[in-house]
Amino acid sequence: MKDLTTNIAYVILFVGIGLLAFTFISAYTFLINDPNITGSSNLVDVFGSALAPLIVASIRIMYLGIMGWIGAGLTARGIQLIIQLKRLAAPQPQPRPSPTINQTEPIQAKKGTKVLAQASQK
After folding, report:
1. Which of 18, 56, 62, 81 has its CA 20 to 30 A from that of 71?
2. 18 three-class SS
3. Please, are residues 40 and 18 in contact by the beta-carbon 8 Å criterion?
4. What digits encode the pLDDT tens for the residues 17-73?
5. What is the rounded CA–CA span in Å between residue 99 and residue 101?
């Protein structure tokens, strides 16, 4: 059972890391592309030709943001699961037994202490 849980934890971790790597590679290739925005004297043509690439770019940025968010969440959950499994697998330290006082033996009083000497005589 522990092997299956450990394997699942590592799969979650590596899927998250893979998703983050894919996100960064996609973002890098997106930044390398040169968006083609043309200018014109007609204001309607400028906005029409400029808004289409901006809308596409904003959709890609949202896509990359969501992928990065999911990848970071998967990676964090995988790390938490692995740490928790290692803590459960580690041997727990045994508490030391507390010293007990044997109540059947009389209390020995030191010289010069009247209260303890009187208590031991009663």
Report:
1. 56
2. helix
3. no
4. 999 999 999 888 887 876 665 556 677 777 777 787 788 888 888 988 898 999 999
5. 7
The model's pTM:
0.57
Closest by Cα among 7, 15, 2, 4 to 74: 15
The three-class DSSP label of residue 34 is coil
Closest CA relative to residue 77, chosen from 10, 19, 7, 20 = 10
Cα–Cα distance measured from residue 13 to residue 79, given in angstroms and rounded to the nearest whole number:
6
Q: Are the C-beta atoms of residues 28 and 90 closer than 8 Å to each other?
A: no
Q: How far is CA 88 from CA 5, 39, 82, 91, in A?
A: 12, 64, 10, 8
Q: How far apart are the first and last CA of the chain?
A: 63
- Using an 8 Å Cβ cutoff, are 85 and 6 in contact? yes
How many whole angstroms separate alpha carbon 15 and alpha carbon 78?
A: 9
